[in-house]
Amino acid sequence: MIPEQIARHRHQVLARIQAATERAGRPAGSVALIAVSKKQPPAAIRAAHAAGQRAFGESYLQEALDKQALLADLDDIEWHFIGRLQSNKTRQIAAHFDWVHGLADATHARRLSEQRPASRRPLNVCLQLNLSGESSKGGVAPEDVSALLAQCAELPGLRVRGLMTLPAPSEDEAEQRRPFRELREWRDRLATPECPLDVLSMGMSDDLEAAILEGATQVRIGTAVFGARPTN
């Protein structure tokens, strides 16, 4: 996709976000766009950056590190790791990312905290909830999230910012909203003055409106910004 198309598509996504925010009666600017750039070439990220995008989501560590090296001159990019965590990758994730969106394991939490460079601020993390109970889906069971949150609160290299989920796709808005509402309700139960959990990372290209109506503060959008991912 040429740069002008990426800029135009990003503008269209921002317009959808604004319309949904207004529909929800929420303040303008209360929903951030994470441009999911996995499988996209560095040139596409440069084009989105030139259009004003600063937050980018990556799922594959080595691919992301290669891009970061090639885009090192763009020193204001905020890198979000949105893939599934693995113990043998936590050191590099802790060193090279600003956010992790899929934390669901106490061992991974400890490793990320211990491996976070002292020169960097604590790593922003969102705890992933598995609201469907499907074994194929990542995330912590809702009944276990309170314990994980308490463990993370003791780790100086982490800053728990909120919750995230990846619901099953649906074309019905009411069905789309159900898991997002459930995540918001869990946030409301778990939040404290010390850990307000002000971030709800939920919603993608096909359901961002439903997510925003239920309180999303970050939406992770790939296809609607960059178009279909390259097949090679």
TrEMBL record:
It holds the Pfam family Ala_racemase_N. GO terms for molecular function: pyridoxal phosphate binding. The keyword Ubl conjugation does not apply. Residues 15-230 form the Alanine racemase N-terminal domain. The modification N6-(pyridoxal phosphate)lysine is found at residue 38. Belongs to the pyridoxal phosphate-binding protein YggS/PROSC family. Pyridoxal 5'-phosphate (PLP)-binding protein, which is involved in PLP homeostasis. PANTHER family: PROLINE SYNTHETASE CO-TRANSCRIBED BACTERIAL HOMOLOG PROTEIN, PYRIDOXAL PHOSPHATE HOMEOSTASIS PROTEIN. NCBIfam families: YggS family pyridoxal phosphate-dependent enzyme. This is Pyridoxal phosphate homeostasis protein. It comes from Allochromatium palmeri.
